[in-house]
# Entry
Amino acid sequence: MKSYDLVVIGSGPGGYVAAIRAAQLGMKTALVEKNETLGGTCLNVGCIPSKALLDSSEHYHQAQHQFAEHGIKVDALKLDFSQMIARKQEVVDQTVAGIDFLMDKNGIDVLKGAGSILDASTVRVAKSGGKKSGGTVDVKAGKILIATGSVVADLPFAKPDGKRIITSTEALSLKSLPKKLVVIGGGVIGLELGSVYARLGTEVHVIEYQDAILPTMDRTLGKELGRSLKKLGMKLHLGHAVKSVKGAARNVTVLADDKKGVEQTFKADYCLVAVGRKAYTGGLGLGAVGITCDDRGRIEVNADLQTSVPTIYAIGDVVAGAMLAHKAEEEGVYAVEHMAGQKPQIDHNLIPGVVYTWPEVAAVGRSEEELKAAGVEYRVGSFPFKASGRARASMDTDGLIKVLVDATTDEILGVHMVGARAADMIHEAVVAMTYRATAEDISRMCHAHPTFSEAIKEAALAATGNRALHV
Ligand code: FAD
Ligand code: NAD
# Structure
């Protein structure tokens, strides 16, 4: 039987990054993956394809609605939807091939097949992959890392059928542009993929159970983004309880009760169910080795990401916390360094969250609602992009930056932004908060002019006592 220092089960951003780090640390490493391609949800049907379509659709939308004002005339602009989907797939294929290269380069054995845990040091792989599929192979493992990720959560009355009732996976590969799309869930997937289709001309209705979109983020963000999405033509139905979804041959009918309890009917070409994701542990055989899960099916781990069996670790979407690729990566590196006897560190409060709509949404640290609930005394400073020269120059004046600081110490506790390039700007806040900076620190750092980042400095100035200069 082949023997490894580490066997990683699942090749998403958590698993493959952990495998690379393990190889760097000199561990003989195997990576087990049941899908044909490596890269997990993120590379195949998540982060990468959705961003490819978001970028393509934004170009189209700008060409249609903004170019003329910039003085660029485009005659007979035409959408080639199948080319857009084909380009997205090329991006995925290239990215996934990059992971094969990285595994090879780092001397990591890739075992194609579904992994299960026989005992604390044995992994069985039910082989898949071309001619060699079928049969099992057992390997010895000094340590095991579970990185099996998550799958789509559904509603009892809205089971995706892959035809008219779809998940994000099908929404990333539609054959033709829908005229009308109903999205259940005004969270990250609903708004990102809803934006893609709204920009391309689809009539998009988002039905959200809570009274706000992005309800788990600082409430200012959903309010601000909602204004931009409405301008884009998206219809946001908040406080609506969906009660039935029926797919037919050519369309789908969704029934929901509005805030007043009045039944509303939505007919569309497709209904995208985007109400969250759930941890995936199918077929791992956790019970046999005594690994426990919480009431939401997530593997229980300690602060060092060890399961109830100390030589078996778990990371990423399959454990508690934000379901984000970069959180999975950080945890993968942490787990492997801990196995190697190092003392790694992650601050889960400083994992940024980004929504890739336009304007983008980005946040790090605590929301105003969380600070209120915890009884923390805080001050708020905010700055609107309409007061930014750079934003005016690029016609991206929607949005704002909000900085929350401790009322006594001035330490930055949370930064929340809606605006162009927020996804990249948020890292200034991550760096600042990692070094426990104050708003005064940020407000005394020179920011290049004219940039979107100046708004962070202005918001910090506002938080230190109404010293913003350009409002
Ligand atoms: P996954 O990426 O889910 O990978 C798990 C892997 O394990 C899979 O390949 C699976 O086949 C494999 N596996 C499972 N069981 C077994 C088994 N028994 N044996 C062998 N292999 C197994 N996050 C972001 O940070 N930014 C984004 O922009 C973003 N966009 C997203 C867009 C969409 C549409 C979706 C659906 C998700 C998005 N996410 C995004 C979330 C992100 O994809 C996940 O948080 C991330 O992929 C989790 O990584 P992971 O390694 O924990 O698991
Ligand atoms: P989500 O948790 O972001 O949003 C789900 C939304 O559905 C919530 O607003 C919730 O209130 C709503 N909802 C739940 N039940 C409902 C019902 N019965 N009727 C109407 N609305 C209902 O989940 P998601 O958008 O499916 O995304 C899944 C995961 O993938 C998230 O954890 C997210 O972090 C990750 N993801 C991240 C990115 C990114 O980082 N940019 C992009 C896509 C997905």
About this structure: Residues 155, 184-190, 192, 207-210, 215, 242, 274-277, 322-324, 354-356 surround nicotinamide-adenine-dinucleotide (ligand 2) (CB under 6 Å). Residues 439 and 460 are 5 Å apart (CA to CA).
